[in-house]
Amino acid sequence: MKIPGNLLETIPLALVEIFQQKKAADRVVDFNLKNHSKWGSRDRRFFAENVYTIVRNYRKLWVQSGLDPKEYLNLSKIDLTSMKQLAQFHLDSGAPILGSEQNLSEENRLSAFAEQESYPDWLDQLGRKELGKDWEPIAKALNQQAPVFLRTNTLKTTQAKLKDVLSLEQVQCRMRHENDLTIELTARKNVFVTKAFQQGLFEVQDFSSQQVAPLLNPKSGETIVDGCAGAGGKTLHLAALMKNKGRIHALDVHQRKLDELYKRSLRAGCVIIRPQVIDSKDVVKYLTDSADGVLLDVPCSGSGVIRRNPDTKWKFQPADFDRLLSLQQEILQDYSKMVKKGGRLVYATCSVFPSENLNQVTSFIKQNPNFNLESSKLFRPDVDPGDGFFMALLTRSK
Fold it and tell me: Disulfide check for 351: which of 124, 231, 300, 308 has CB 3.0–4.6 Å away?
């Protein structure tokens, strides 16, 4: 494929924004796609796929392109010149070049793994500390391109009908029979421009993420709280499981995310969701002992979704991890008070690290013996269909 000159110039500029200016990779890609309306579909796909591939393999490409191995995280070295060199090397080689780990000492092999799989040393070391021998297969899986899953909106259609509608719009997909909701794309396509999306027949949601709301088992007529609702993917799923009967308090600290949830709920036909920004502790206090079920998809490292957000590897820092551990426990302690006697609580993260997952639940139960752990599950990206995800179901006895 002949590469247009404007793509050769735009890719390094995008990389500077991502690495030097710390902008989110998905927003940089989206901005460029919107800003270059004359690009054809092949150009758009080429730009997006290569930016993500370079971000995903950044450390390895930096070293193999001849740049100083010690300087790959030095912002003063990440300029347009270095990004042009890195991007040109990637485009010329067609793919990252793999090295050999044969005949290396164990210490050197571990160091080579971090470089070859493109993880900063500290994150590789954390992964090994948290997961032991399971880290390497998980780390490799997190470097693969993520599949695209859709969740059927059962308020409007069924899985089989959705597949037929999508097929008529030339969306190549298949039904996942692990449940009666999931559609998996077998060829990448912009599904947001389809009539099926505009009619609210589905939401784009990872397979693992789709397992969270059913674990809470919300029933029609109940009062449910989504304590960290964000833009509402799981909130909408809860509403569908409740058949639009009952009440869902969708809470978040960011008003802009709740505004997006409101738009999505209109499209999906959900009428029982009440978005509310958490602007003081009174919001949570007001809901004390009121909820049949509380869902807490808490802020986390995002280690389980690195394949979707590869720039996380380069922006997440050790201090961020420690801060999140404190925040997760604080949310569990405070928001659990909204669960009434006999009610249910689901704690979830998109992390694969035990410190953020079962360790947090165990610590919480020790301090709150009126809660019991009923079940827990870690979805692994190297074993399961979807992203890395943890979820635990607790019940309140008194």
Answer: 300
